[in-house]
Amino acid sequence: MNRRALIALLRMSAIVVFGLVVAPQAVPAEGSPPAAYNPYPPGILPADLQSEIDRVSREVKFIFQQALAEWRALPPPNLTGQPPTLQGSGYDMVQTLGKLMNYDENISVFKNQACASCHMPYAGFSGPIPSVNLTMVAFPGSFHFRAGKRTAQRYTYSPWFPVLQFNETQALFFGGNFWDSRATGYLLQNPDAEQAQHPPVDTQEMGAPDTACIVFRLSQAEYRPLFEQVWGEGALDIKFPPNTEKICSTPGGAAVFGTDTTPVKLSPQDRLLANRAFDNWGQSVDAFEKSKEVSPFTSKFDAVLAGKATLTADETAGYNLFRGKANCNSCHVDGRGTTLNRGQTDTSVTATTNPLFTCFGSANEGLPLNPRNAFYYQTKPDFFGFTPNPFGFGYRDLGLGTFLRSGFGSAPNPNAEWIPFAPTSDGQFQVATARNVAMAPTQCPTTEAPGPYFQKGFFHNGYIKSLKQLVHFYNTRDEPNFAFPVTSGHCPRGTVERVTCWPMPEVRNNIDMTTGKLGLTDREENQIVAFLQTLTDGFTKPYPNRDTFTGMCMSGGTAATQGNESIIPTPPLPPCVSAICGVAPFPTMPIP
Predict the structure, then answer these.
(1) Which residues, 6+ apart, have CB-to-CB distance to 320 below 8 Å?
(2) Cα–chain-centroid distance for residue 288?
(3) Are 543 and 537 in contact (CB under 8 A)?
(4) What residue numbers bound the domain in which 139 lies?
(5) C-alpha atoms less than 13 angstroms from C-alpha of 54 in its C-beta half-sphere
(6) What CATH number should be reported for the domain holding residue 147?
(7) Span 246-274, mean pLDDT?
(8) Distance CA 164, CA 169 (A)
(9) pTM value?
(10) What average pLDDT does the segment 213-233 reach?
(11) What are phi and psi of 586, to 5 degrees?
(12) Three-class SS string for 103-162?
């Protein structure tokens, strides 16, 4: 898809969205979704959204069938020893179970969305729809077109993140999963397993109104025998009430449920079994994400560490900048020292053979508010009486700070001792691993224009559209000639947004000042991009299912201005609502 075609697509989206808005709201048949929720003004949803959802669904079904075949090819289980162990095949069994769960669309409220629907292999298990990554940022859920508020975070290597903890010496949080670290791992002592439990019951994602609904769907799954082989015979023998299907076919947040988070009424014993099986769900998905099918350490950089490959001149220069002048490895830790000053020599030795390129911490990089984010427009009640974002553009994403306050759109904070640290955490988001940041389908093997390329969205709000822009942002964010007190879409005449103009941060508190004014040349920025591309798995052996993409590559333009045709002006912003910025403990300085 070239840029002219893309502009036509964006224009067409206005017509499509208008048609959806004025369409009559028919009462759906029981168990089927009602007419799409569409509070969006013209142009927010991409015109190809439904066809792209359908395309991803076909890809998900293909891999699900692949997983069924892998299950059926497993040898008979041999449970033996003390404690009992599935000898020989235990790893394969639990990982295959997790794979089946990950690609099972029947888990969602309308049986039309799997975990993988927003996290496909060819995108590094992040967002698989280029037009969504370019425009609305967050992916639509099982009930179309409710959508979340952040980009679909890559979950390659997410199992290596530790349980969320506060380091008193550094006065910083480390660990957890999700952009805001709300999957702490406090109960299962496994943040990744807890992370897998959130999307199935997220109102804007898979949408189940009760965790028991996931277990109910598992009890009906074709692969139920595998679940019971792994987690025990009778693990799904739960007496579900007759109205369970009706309840589980109604999305969470529906007015009919009120504040009831357990509308499936089970006996205490059956609720205990359901809770245990839901924990097993998370543990199984975690096993899959930890497997060589998701997190295999097969990048060119891994081959270099093993002495089986050599970086090119530009890749070497990029790596030296990454751990030197650009200071990238102070957060995206690579197991080596950092040489910030001219003339310094790196005398460190490799501390690990499989560096994860993250410190597991959180930081506020000062991203501008992205008015393309679909969340800002979900201010009207949907068919079920649920309003995803009653605050509109009065919403501010405080990330970790909101979670520590158990705030709107996040999750309950399980540790009261952390609450006082919310003000110093406002605006902070998880430092994602740099591994697979450049992952793209084999058919369009780069994220960078002119391509052919696969459009991704970077950072939590998808404001950045290429790795070139990402490095350029880190490099020039605070340069006097680049930083302007404007919102996105309002850069001064004579400047180019994302090139010579950076709008002001959405949250100005706690900004990471180790970046923003790095003094890199254009060539040095490109060399860092070249190095980041060496962190893509699939160099030493093919990355599983990277070739399942059946969509269209994009082409044309430059990486520096990639996606700029989709920039829209931010409307006049009301103050941050008190339900977010007025919750104690208050931000260290007011958030406008």
Answers:
(1) none
(2) 17
(3) yes
(4) 47-293
(5) 4
(6) 1.10.760.10
(7) 98
(8) 15
(9) 0.93
(10) 98
(11) -75, 155
(12) CCHHHCCCCCCCHHHHCEHHHCCECCCHHHHHCCCCCECCCCCCECCCCCCCCCCHHHCC
Report if residue 203 sits inside a domain: yes
293/542 Cα distance (integer angstroms): 10
Instruction: Give domain status of residue 205, yes or no.
Output: yes
524 occurs within a structural domain: no
- The tens digit of pLDDT for each residue in 461-482 reads 999 999 999 999 999 999 999 9
Q: Residue 472 has which token pair? A: 């350029």
Tokens coding 138: 């967050």
> Which has the closest alpha carbon to 433: 174, 158, 196, 194?
158
pLDDT digits (tens, 9 = 90+) for 392-421: 999 999 999 999 999 999 999 999 999 999
Check whether 164 has a pLDDT greater than 90.
yes
What separation in angstroms does the CA of 87 have from each of 95, 100, 285, 429, 586?
A: 14, 21, 20, 41, 54
**Residue-by-residue DSSP string for 456-512:** --BSTT--B-SHHHHHHHHHHTT-TTTB-S--TT-PPTT--BTTTBBPPPS--TTB-
User: Do residues 314 and 526 make contact, with C-beta atoms less than 8 angstroms apart?
Assistant: yes
**Token pair recorded at residue 190:** 């496994």
- Dihedral sign of CA atoms 347, 353, 355, 360 in order: negative
Position 323 scores a pLDDT of 95
Cα separation, 392 vs 376, whole angstroms:
5
Mean pLDDT of the chain: 94
Q: Which two tokens stand for residue 268?
A: 């205490």
Q: What is the mean pLDDT of residues 512-537?
A: 97
Per residue, the 3-state secondary structure of 305-321, as one string, reads HCCCCCCCHHHHHHHHH
DSSP helix/strand/coil, 533 = helix
Residue 389 lies in a domain: no
Task: Identify the pLDDT of residue 289.
Answer: 98
Instruction: Please report where in the chains the tokens 């990089």 appear, as a residue.
Output: 365
Domains: count for the chain: 1
